[in-house]
Amino acid sequence: MLIPQFYDGSPFVDMLRKELAQATHVDIASAWARASGVGLILQALMALLERGGSLQAVIGVDRENTSIEGLEMLLRLQGQADIWVRHNEASSIYHPKFYAFKTTTHARAYIGSNNLTGAGLSTNEELSALLVEPKGGQLEASISSYMAALVDTKDNLAHKLDAAFLKQLVDGGYVLPESRLRGKSARTRATAAKPDALFGFKAPKRRHVPPGLLVSAIEPGPAEPSADWKRIFVKLRLARGTQGQLPVPVAHELRRQLGQTDLDGPIPIILNNVERVISPTFAKRNPNFANTYKIEMKPSDDDPVIKIELVGDRVLVQQFDTKSPAGQAHLRYILDGLHTDPVQTFSRGIPKGASSEDIEEAAKGVTLYRYD
User: Fold this and answer.
1) Element (H or E) spanning 48, and its range?
2) Other beta carbons less than 10 A from residue 347's beta carbon
């Protein structure tokens, strides 16, 4: 049976979610994994593990297509989850796209072109074939044999993933932040048909990662920066008059530019000519991933705007009142980014589907940021 995925619907992720809902064990072998893809099935994976099921996933890191956040998402799964990374330092590429499900009665396997990425599971034109056989047959045996070969460590091509090995992958440049990968792809993504195009233009219907998952680089989306930004402008929403929250994706991008290999950690800054440190805070339910970076500001009658610049290895932060001429100019730059295509100003607080006429009104009282 063929399982096609076209640009206008029929996303492969819907099939995976149905399979995960009835599986007792899942095997995944994917050349690439990103948070944009893992996040689409993360809740279904968590449900599988919570009811006593098991997961074995083997992910490749070739061609700078697997992200740090994608591996982190898999790594933080609780239960019987064995996550592996496979790579050959020779030119050979680890390139499978394989999803197998064991139920109480059958072995089921999808073999095709869908990587564990947002595009692979929802927007690209992809194709997989489904094999089904009663449990205990040749298909189940061949799946077990194949997965055992992938995780065989005798030739040093496969490594069990843990926090320490993920750090080695990051330090060695094997995996990059999702924002970097999305920034690269955004530069080549068409947003409108060319006047002299030879083919049709059909915008894909993308499935989005559910809100609330604590891997911040999934959103805001494909226009996040590549490595060449110079400044970041942020409109902060203050609590109790002085306490703002620096967006976590901004903090991660600053740490990356400063050469910090850990995803979360303190950031020394110079705020209005005063040296300070912004430190992450962690929720008890997820102590390994920061949920906020708090920053103390001067009191302001309105939501202030800050400009963040890197000068060598120093982070300079300057606060502006949005009623001042400079503050008005910075605010206008941020708001203008809400109307670009692709959008260049980001926030998680604006309701989805807000029209271009209403989006600035919806953005009031919401933290916004834009890279320059």
Assistant:
1) helix 35-50
2) 21
Residue 331 and residue 323 in contact, taking contact as beta carbons nearer than 8 Å = no
**Burial class, 318, CB count within 10 angstroms (exposed 0-12 / middle 13-18 / buried 19+):** middle
Total domains in the fold of the chain: 2
Domain annotation covers residue 222: no
Give the chain's length: 372
Strands (E), 122-203: 126-134, 158-160
Q: What are phi and psi of 68, to 5 degrees?
A: -55, -45
Tokens of 42: 């993360």
Question: Percentage of residues in the chain with pLDDT exceeding 70?
Answer: 83
Q: Whole domain around residue 302: which residue ranges?
A: 229-371
Helix axes 68-75, 163-171, angle to 10 degrees: 170
Assess if residue 39 is contained within a domain. yes
Rounded-to-integer distance, Cα 46 and Cα 333, Å:
41
Whether 208 maps to a domain, the answer reads no
Strand partners, 318: 307
- Percent composition of the chain: helix, strand, coil (DSSP 3-state, to 5): 30, 30, 40
Pair (247, 363) in one structural domain: yes
**3-class DSSP assignment, residue 298:** coil
If you average pLDDT over every residue of the chain, what do you get?
84
Of 145, 165, 182, the residue at which a domain comes to its end is 182
3-state secondary structure 16-84: HHHHHHHCCEEEEEECCECHHHHHHHHHHHHHHHHCCCEEEEEEECHHHCCEHHHHHHHHCCCCEEEEE
pTM here? Answer: 0.60
